[in-house]
Design brief:
The complex is a heterodimer of chains A (about 625) and B (about 60).
Chain A (H helix, E strand, L loop, with lengths): L2 H23 L4 H6 L6 H12 L2 H14 L4 H29 L5 H8 L3 H34 L3 H17 L7 H25 L3 H10 L6 H5 L20 H5 L2 H17 L4 H8 L4 H36 L2 E13 L9 E2 L6 H6 L1 E7 L10 E4 L5 E3 L7 E4 L4 H4 L14 H9 L2 H39 L4 H24 L5 H25 L5 H21 L2 H7 L1 H6 L18 H19 L5 H7 L11
Antiparallel strand pairs in A: 1-2, 1-3, 1-6, 3-4, 5-6
Chain B lengths: L7 H23 L10 H15 L6
The chains are: A mainly alpha (about 625), B mainly alpha (about 60).
Chain lengths: ~625, ~60
C-alpha cells in the first residue's frame, strides 16, 4: 500500500470517526430527532436506510454474479427498488412505526412477541436471527476482504482480519448507534463512487448501445458448463423451462440457471428484504408517514445507483476483460502449469518441475507475472493462457504486456481457485485493472462505507436479539447483565462471521446473502404482514407459520436443493444420495429455491390456522391497532 | 435488438429498474407535504426508551 492510499484511508477513517463523535456529543441519532419531535432530513434518512440495505455483498457479490450470469440480474434491481423501497416505505413503514411505538417494541422479535402476546414467538424469532445472521455478516466481510486483498498485496485471510478489524474499530467507536450523519456521509460516498464507476465503464466501452452490443457479441464465449445449464449470453435471460421427470444428462440441467437466477438470487433477495429485521426497526425511528413519503424519492434513486450500477458494470466487465484489458507487468513464466486435480474441480495448485507426467498432462497453462511494486518474495500472479492471449516483451526496460482476452469469470481463475473461477473477485479486479489508482482508493471508501453501515446494524440486531429478546424476556427486564449479554452476543456474531468467512471462500457472497434473506422471508414474512394488517391472525397461526416457514426452508435445503444438500451432506449420510429426489421427479426441483416452497406453505399455514383457531382477545387486538392497553394480559 | 441488448426481457428489467426509481421520485415529491402527524406521548416514550435501553448501552463511554 502506498502513501497516497494510506493517507486517504486515514483521512476517511478520521472523518467518519469525527462525525460519529460529533453525532454522539450532539446526540443526532434518528431517535434524537424523534425525542425532539422533529423530522430528520429526508435525504439523510433515505441515505442512511439505503446504506444499511446495500452492502459489499450487493456491490461485490451480486455484481460478480451479474458478471457471470449477465444483465438479467437487473430484475433484482427492479425488485430492490419496487419492493425494497416503494412497497416497504409506502405500505409497511407507517404501520410498523405505529404498532412499534404503541406496543413499545424496539426490536423485530419484540414487535412479533407483543403483537401475538407470546414470549415464545419473541425468543424463537431472536434465535433464528442470532444463529443465521452471521451468514449474512460473513458475506459482507468477504466482499470487503476480496477487494482489499489485491490492493494491499496481502493474502485473503489477512485481508479478512484487517477488514473485520477496521469495521470493529468503527463499531466500537460508536457506529452502532446509527448516527445519521455518519450513515449519510457513507451513503454519499457510495453514491459518488458508483456513479463514476458507471459513467467511466460506458465511456471505456464506447458508449451505451455499443457497450451492450459488444457484450451481446461475446455470446459465443459463454463457458461450456454455464451454457449447459441454460446461459444464453450476457444480455439474455437463461433458458426457461422445466425438465421432464427422470431426465438425465444435459436434459436434466438445461434450465438450472434460470431457476438459480430467478428463484434464489432475484426472488430470495428481492422479496426477502421485506422481512429483514435490521431494516424493519429503522421504520420505528421515523417521526411520521411524511418522513417516509419524502424518503421514498431519495431511497429509490439511491438503490438504482447501487445495485443497478453494480449489475450493469458487472455484466459489462466481460467486454472490458475480453477486449480492452492490457496488463503492464513483468512476465516471469509464459507457460506455468497449475493442476486442477484428478476430477478437474480441485483448487488449482502449482505443478512442480519433477511432477509425474499424468499431472502435467491434466494441468492447465497459465502466464505467471509480477506487477510493478510487487516484491520478489510475494507470490506470483497467474492468468489463464488461451489462444486468445497475446504477450509482448518490453524492450529497453519497458514493461511486458499481456492481453489475456478472457471473459470475466475466466479472468478470475488463478492459483487457489478451482477452474470454475471465483465471481466474488471480479468487481475488485475490474476496478483495480480498468481504473486509475485514485479511483481504486475511492472505491475502497465506497466499499468500507457500504460494509460499515450494514455490519453495524447487523451486529446491533444480533446483539439485541440475544440480550434483549432472549435474555431479558427470560429474566424479566433490562439490566446491566442484559447489556453485557448484548455485547457478548455482538462479539460472538463477529467471530462467527469471520470464522465462516475463512472456511468458505469462493462464489459464496451472493449465495449466503440469498440464503439468509430467503430464510427470513419464509420464517417471518407471513407473521409480520399478518400481524400488521390482519386483525384475525392468531397467536397459534403466527407460531405455526414461523415453524412451517423455518422448517420447510431448512428441510428443503437439507434434502432437496442440490447445492445446499450436497454441501451439507446430511441427506447422503442418511439415504446414500445427495437429495431425496428420485427419477419420478423432475430434476429441476433440485434447483428450486427453498423460498418458493416455504413461503407459500408458511402463508397458507398462517391463514388456515388463523381461521381454525379462536380469535385473539378483542381487547388485545384493539390495543395492538392503537386502542387502550387492556387491564390484564390475555391471549 | 434494443440498445444492443439481445433479450427484450433483459431490456424490460433495465427499463423497470429505472421506471421504479422514477416512480419513487414522483411519489416522494407528490406526497412531500402529506402524512405529517403530531408527535404523541407514546412516540416520545418509545424514543427515550430506545435511547436508554438500546442505544446508550452499546456506545462506549
Amino acid at each position: 500500500m502506498d502513501i497516497f492510499t494510506l493517507s486517504v484511508l486515514i483521512v476517511y477513517l478520521l472523518a467518519t470517526g469525527y462525525l460519529g463523535y460529533q453525532g454522539y456529543r450532539q446526540t443526532k441519532t434518528a431517535t434524537d430527532y424523534l425525542v425532539a419531535g422533529r423530522n430528520a432530513n429526508p435525504v439523510v434518512m433515505a441515505l442512511s436506510y439505503g446504506a444499511t440495505f446495500i452492502s459489499t455483498s450487493a456491490i461485490v457479490g451480486f455484481g460478480g454474479v451479474a458478471a457471470n450470469f449477465g444483465m438479467g440480474l437487473l430484475w433484482l434491481t427492479f425488485l430492490n427498488i419496487f419492493v425494497g423501497i416503494f412497497i416497504a416505505f409506502v405500505f409497511l413503514g407507517n404501520p410498523t412505526r405505529r404498532m412499534g411505538h404503541h406496543l413499545d417494541a424496539h426490536t423485530f422479535p419484540e414487535l412479533m412477541g407483543k403483537r401475538f402476546n407470546s414470549r415464545f414467538i419473541q425468543i424463537a424469532c431472536a434465535l433464528i436471527i442470532f444463529c443465521f445472521m452471521p451468514l449474512y455478516a460473513m458475506a459482507v466481510i468477504i466482499g470487503g476482504a476480496e477487494f482489499i486483498g489485491p490492493i494491499f498485496h496481502i493474502t485473503y485471510n489477512a485481508a479478512l482480519y484487517i477488514f473485520a478489524l477496521l469495521v470493529a474499530a468503527y463499531v466500537i467507536a460508536g457506529g452502532l448507534k446509527g448516527v445519521m450523519l455518519t450513515d449519510a456521509l457513507q451513503g454519499a460516498i457510495m453514491l459518488v463512487g458508483m456513479i463514476i464507476l458507471l459513467a467511466v465503464t460506458y465511456v471505456i466501452l464506447g458508449g451505451f448501445a455499443p457497450a451492450h452490443q459488444a457484450l451481446t457479441d461475446l455470446g459465443a464465449q459463454v463457458p461450456k458448463p454455464l451454457a449447459a445449464i441454460g446461459h444464453q449470453g450476457w444480455t439474455s435471460m437463461p433458458a426457461f423451462g422445466w425438465a421432464a421427470a427422470g431426465a438425465t444428462g444435459a436434459d436434466a440441467s438445461r434450465y438450472n440457471l434460470w431457476w438459480i437466477m430467478v428463484s434464489t438470487i432475484v426472488m430470495g433477495v428481492g422479496i426477502g428484504v421485506l422481512a429483514q429485521p435490521q431494516l424493519i426497526v429503522r421504520f420505528m425511528t421515523v417521526k411520521s408517514k411524511q418522513s417516509l413519503n419524502r424518503g421514498v424519492a431519495a431511497g429509490g434513486l439511491f438503490i438504482l445507483f447501487m445495485t443497478g450500477v453494480a449489475f450493469i458494470v458487472g455484466a459489462l466487465s466481460n467486454v472490458y476483460f475480453a477486449k480492452h484489458e492490457t496488463i503492464s507487468c513483468r512476465i516471469v513464466d509464459e507457460a506455468a502449469l497449475l493442476d486442477p486435480g484428478a476430477d478437474g474441480k480441485a483448487k488449482l495448485s502449482l505443478v512442480a518441475a519433477d511432477a509425474p507426467a499424468e499431472i502435467k498432462a491434466r494441468a492447465k497453462t497459465f502466464i505467471a507475472y509480477r506487477m510493478p511494486g510487487d516484491a520478489e518474495d510475494q507470490p506470483l500472479r497467474y492468468v489463464l493462457k488461451t489462444p486468445a492471449a497475446s504477450l509482448t516483451r518490453g524492450v529497453d526496460n519497458a514493461p511486458d504486456t499481456i492481453k489475456p482476452g478472457l471473459i470475466a469469470i475466466a479472468r478470475s481463475i488463478t492459483l487457489g481457485t478451482p477452474m470454475q473461477g471465483n465471481s466474488d473477485t471480479i468487481i475488485p479486479s475490474y476496478v483495480n485493472s480498468a481504473f486509475p489508482k485514485w479511483f481504486g482508493v475511492l472505491f475502497l471508501m465506497t466499499l468500507l462505507s457500504a460494509a460499515m453501515s450494514t455490519l453495524s446494524s447487523q451486529f446491533h440486531t444480533m446483539g439485541t436479539a440475544i440480550g434483549r429478546d432472549v435474555f431479558e424476556t427470560l429474566t424479566g427486564g433490562h439490566s446491566s447483565r442484559s447489556v453485557l449479554i448484548t455485547r457478548l452476543g455482538i462479539v460472538v456474531g463477529i467471530i462467527a462471521a469471520i470464522t465462516l468467512g475463512k472456511a468458505v471462500r469462493g462464489n459464496i457472497i451472493a449465495l449466503a446473502t440469498a440464503i439468509f434473506f430467503g430464510l427470513c422471508a419464509a420464517s417471518f414474512l407471513p407473521a409480520f404482514l399478518g400481524g400488521l394488517f390482519w386483525k384475525r391472525m392468531t397467536r397459534a397461526a403466527a407460531i405455526a407459520s414461523i415453524a412451517v416457514g423455518f422448517l420447510s426452508s431448512g428441510l428443503w435445503s437439507i434434502f432437496v436443493n442440490g447445492k445446499t444438500a450436497a454441501g451439507l451432506g446430511l441427506c447422503k449420510s442418511l439415504i446414500g444420495r445427495d437429495t431425496i429426489l428420485t427419477p419420478a421427479f423432475s430434476p429441476t426441483w433440485a434447483v428450486v429455491d427453498p423460498l418458493l416452497v416455504a413461503l407459500p406453505l408458511a402463508a397458507l399455514t398462517a391463514v388456515l390456522v388463523s381461521l381454525l383457531t379462536k380469535p385473539m382477545n378483542p381487547d388485545h387486538v384493539r390495543y395492538c391497532f392503537g386502542g387502550p392497553k387492556p387491564e390484564a394480559k390475555a391471549g | 435488438m434494443l440498445q444492443g441488448i439481445q433479450d427484450p426481457w433483459v431490456f424490460l428489467a433495465y427499463l423497470l429498474a429505472i421506471g421504479s426509481a422514477i416512480l419513487c421520485v414522483v411519489y416522494g415529491f407528490a406526497n412531500w407535504n402529506k402524512g405529517d402527524e403530531p408527535v404523541k406521548p407514546e412516540d416520545v416514550k418509545w424514543a427515550k426508551e430506545e435511547k436508554e435501553e438500546v442505544e446508550e448501552p452499546l456506545t462506549p463511554r
